[in-house]
Amino acid sequence: MNAREIVNSDRFKNLVRKRWTFSYIMLAILFVVYFGYLFLISLDKELMIKMVTPNITLGIALFVAVIVIAWVLTITYVLWANNSYDKEVEELKKMLK
Amino acid sequence: MNEVIAQRLANFQAGKADPISLLFFAIIVAGTLMITYWAARKTKTTSEFYAAGRSVTGFQNGLALAGDYMSAASFLGISGMVALRGYDGAIYAVGWLVGWPALMFLIAEPLRNLGKFTFADVVSSRLKNRPIRIASAVGGILVVLCYTIAQMVGAGKLIQLMFGMPYELAEILVGTVMLLYVLFGGMLATTWVQIIKAVLLLFGVTVLAGLVLFKFGFNPGNLFGAVGDMYGFETMFKPGGFVTSPIEALSLGLALMFGLLGLPHILMRFFTVPDAKEARKSVAYATSFIGYFYLVIPIVGFGAAVLVGQDFITGIDKGGNMAAPILAAALGGKPFLGFIAAVAFATILAVVAGLTLAASSAMSHDIYVSVFKKGQATEAEQVKVARIATVIFGVAAVALGILFKNQNVAFLVGLAFAIAASANFPALLLSITWKKFSTRGAVWSIIAGAVSASVCIILSPVIWVGLLGFEQAVFPLKNPAIVSMTVAFIAAFIGSVTAPEPESQEKFEQEKIRTYLGVGAE
């Protein structure tokens, strides 16, 4: 297959769709987590000094949670891309020859 | 607080360089210059000058990205903010991280596949080259300039505080050493400077936080408890005036998150790795290092508040910027202070070097070679022009740093992020994802984003009331991103619909094989 045929193939179109669907889902989760955190802070400041454990406030716990979730999302994307996306890319590249 | 700390604090003097800190400082500068000498022998072509010959691995680039991003402002500024204002500093720290996952999901891989040396390559790849190049290069330079002035002014004041060196001399010193890196070693030397700096900074922060936690039985809860006992939980852990309303929160969050995706010095790092897979790895490593850094920084800040005390910190510097160095002196004595001071200095040098490289690539590759010479320039000529552009920008950076000496430049970082999020990011994203994006749409979007962001910031409470002294701000929000990003996307839509380009839509389809499979990527 030549480049044009690849680009027009269903397999390639599926790959592109899958990539963006996955990306936008991850982005949506990131948005909910981060902006949810910011909204919570701006709306209820008292809530942030509730204690989750002795001496650790809810605000601190949420701070850690947002950073950890952002990191987990990034790593999830890499694992997905390495295992699923790259394989499909390699096969499509082989078809090009 | 024990007696050793009290003794060390009593001996602490700002603005006095002691031999140990000067020694560390000399070792770091000498070490990085040796790397530059080594890199200089490898830097002959444009690809080597701007993109380190695309030989950087994902891990190295991840460290270098972290080095480019973790500025002295975030190290000293955020730890100081936490020490003085408590939780508000932590909210800020979160914002500096969340752009990284977004960068990964949206543009890291296509950016690598479509680009050559600058992000303008990507925006202009399927559109009419000249107008887009000029617009995106100007947008890029604007962002880099705002960011650089803020860094240079911060750098001068810091070095003044730490080593007692006159401000102007500090500016010239930073400018000269940074120019040596970029001029002779190009991207390869700059990358290694970033890597060394990132490792030193992560190490320094880890030791600092470890020493703090050691005092509290390695239980952060005990530290927070001590902070609460000393200053009250209400004062230190309740969010203050940083995020006032949901709309303000949204606007600030958008600027921080998407501003990263429009910072030219960050984007150009993606062209140093061989392929999209390594680009992806770089973001994963960078996110890990930066996430760790921002998790640990509040411990340093709260530690300084308890072990050093807010009064002592504000006594040395009102803004709290010296909280981390004073804490280092209190916990580790003079050698550790010397080490932290040297790390802060290396941080400044590295960030300014990255910015200068980005500005010089926009000036020489985008404007001179692509627009004036229409791409017709020999390798030797391109490298020569790149070096001239580097000198011009370096000298300008020093001059502007001296000119803005007594100005409050904190807003310039906000402005840089707002313009990056509104002028550079929409055009970059749409050129990758939207088939019907046209030349007019791109130019309008960049101009509308840059102008609306700048105007809104000038009319905002920060400048209109805080700096110019008017009664009431014309634009109510502290950060304009929610408005200026919307304006940029609308301008892109109207511009593209009113002047459609069938040939660029066709090209968009052809380019997909490069965007998604990396076939034909440089």
Describe this structure in words.
The complex is a heterodimer of chains A (97) and B (522). Chain A has one domain (3-95). Chain A has helices at 3-8, 10-43, 58-96; strands at 51-53, 56-57. The longest helix of chain A is centred in the C-terminal third of the chain and has 39 residues, at 58-96. In chain A, a hairpin with a 2-residue loop joins β1 and β2 (56-57). Chain A has a two-stranded antiparallel sheet with strand order 1-2. Chain A has 97 residues and is mainly alpha-helical. The N and C termini of chain A lie close together (7 Å). Chain A is elongated, with a radius of gyration of 21 Å. In chain A, α2 (10-43) runs antiparallel to α3 (58-96). Chain A contains 3 helices and 2 strands, in the order ααββα. Chain B is mainly alpha-helical and 522 residues long. Chain B has a single domain, classed as Sodium/glucose cotransporter (Up-down Bundle), CATH 1.20.1730. Chain B has helices spanning 3-11, 19-42, 46-51, 58-69, 72-85, 87-97, 99-106, 108-114, 119-124, 129-163, 167-215, 220-231, 233-237, 246-259, 264-267, 276-307, 310-316, 323-372, 379-403, 410-433, 439-458, 461-465, 481-498, 502-517. The longest helix of chain B has 50 residues, at 323-372. Chain B is globular. The model of chain B has no long low-confidence stretch (mean pLDDT 90). Chains A and B meet through α1, α2, β2 and α3 of A and α6, α7, α12, α13 and α14 of B. Chain B: One of its GO terms (molecular function) is symporter activity. Chain B: Keywords: Cell membrane, Ion transport, Membrane, Sodium, Symport, Transmembrane, Transmembrane helix, Transport.
